[in-house]
Amino acid sequence: MKKIVIILALFVLNLYALAVDTLSTTQDTNVSVIDESHKVFGYTLFNGSFSNAKQHRYNPNYLINIGDIINIKLWGAFDFNASIPVDSQGNIFLPKVGTIKLLGVRNDKLSLAIQNELKSVFRENVHVYADLGNYQPVSIFVTGAVNKPGLYEGLSSDSIIQFLDKAKGIDSKYGSYRKVSVLRENKLIKEFDLYTFLLSGELDLFQFQMGDVINVGSITHYIEINGDVKRAYRYEIKEEFVTLDEITKVAILNPTATSFTIKKWNQENEQTTSIHSIKDNRNMKIYSGEVIEFLPDHNAKTIEIKVTGEHLNLRNLVVKKGATLKDVFEKINPSELSNLNAFQLYRQSVAQQQKVLLESQLKDLEAKTLTTGSMTNEEAIIRKQEAQLVLNFIDRAKKVEPKGQVVINKATDLSNIILEDKDEIYIPMKNHMVIVQGEVMLPSAQSFVKEMSFEDYIKSCGGYNFRADENNVLIIKQNGKVLSYNPSSWTDEKYSVEPGDNILVLGKVETKSLQVVKDITQILYQIAVGAAVVLRY
Description:
The protein has helices at 2-23, 110-118, 160-166, 194-200, 244-251, 325-329, 348-370, 377-398, 454-460, 514-531; strands at 69-76, 80-85, 91-94, 98-101, 126-134, 137-144, 150-155, 175-184, 187-192, 213-218, 221-227, 234-237, 241-243, 259-265, 271-277, 285-287, 291-295, 302-309, 316-320, 344-346, 405-406, 424-427, 433-438, 444-447, 468-476, 482-484, 502-507. By secondary structure, the chain is an alpha+beta fold. Among the domains are: 36-55 and 137-218, Roll (Outer membrane lipoprotein wza fold like); 69-134, wza like domain (wza like fold), CATH 3.30.1950; 221-295, Roll (Outer membrane lipoprotein wza fold like); 431-531, Outer membrane lipoprotein wza domain like (Outer membrane lipoprotein wza fold like, Roll), CATH 3.10.560.10. Strands 7-6-10-8-9 form a 5-stranded mixed β-sheet, with helices on one face. Helix 1 runs parallel beside helix 8, helix 7 (348-370) packs antiparallel against helix 8 (377-398) and helix 7 (348-370) packs antiparallel against helix 10 (514-531). The radius of gyration is 34 Å and the shape is elongated. It starts with a helix and ends in a 6-residue tail after the last helix.
């Protein structure tokens, strides 16, 4: 029984160690982890660029404090040049003059204050120039809804943004950008609304003192803006509601936006959605917690189509809404080199669907990777290494952008394919090349030879390399159709290599988890087909 308890304890500890080590790379970041669809306005402000900056800009209202460095130059009857710190009693000492009290003197009155003291010793012919050479170093507490509360060092002239940046920024889920306060000896002395800086670049100059506390409050009211706008974020509002007109000034509508929907929830957690025109509802009240989506809700009579590749027409066509592939093909003027039989259709909506599917599979793979346990220390080390490889693969796979190709089969009636706005029709050039890429010794483009078989093309590239999965090879035809290599049925004529083909040799996935192997293989396949990219694991 004791042995079973020990084994279970080791299993839990190893699982915890793997999860902590894997997730530790995201803990020291300034941007809080937040869903892409609910980004907070201002979340990119604290990215580390303010942390190490030193602010020495002139502030006429700055009050001289203990520890400040004063640059002084005297000339005339008495020459003197030095940089003198303000001592613990708020004084500086000048030879032949004595102590001069500077604590609390305004920065723009510094030279005058010293000049007045000089007159008591030198009645005339002594001139003075003084400026603040260095501000007092201070230690400031940063607390509240920040990512890394603590005590941070800086200068008394540093801005509040610099200290917040040192604390890794405001928590994107709970922190308020509009309720940032400075406390001194437990009393409120200054409040900041960072939206003023984010929207107009204005930031109040403020003089910090040793032991000040910056406190970031929690967000109380907010609305979420999506859709046809330039700034689609979650916005914090000071009151329980704002008007639509105030929202449009901050979110900045695109010219195409004509209407908006409001999603709201009642106390029974039931959702209701209503739609309104922008033009007639500028003064409508939008309440905290509601989701506003702006829509280009107009009836377009025409759509824009791109026709790229080898042809003699213009590259951009405007056609009636509801036009078909057949309608556009009747307008295309091919050249002698155009290969109309292998044309390709790319669609943005399909690309978005492919991206969503890929991201969903990557999230599922990530979850499986982070929750795989180990029974021994040795296995935990292996799991940790495998997990890091998988996570690196996921990061690279997230950057892949699918092309959104719609494969048009030969028997398809083109008059049934209705085009969408921004569709792209690609007319390839007649091609007598065969491209072999992926896990072969020498990936290359080769001239097509009718007598050469699939194996001949592989051999002419030096054969498979040690990473190759010989049972996971794809042939992508020039029109986008995909065939999977099957050694047992390779004699069938439909698998023969043709001019313009692209042979993709995928790699092996080496890990002890059979489910992870299956998932990664499926993802590699989708990336190769959807983006024409052979991603290496």
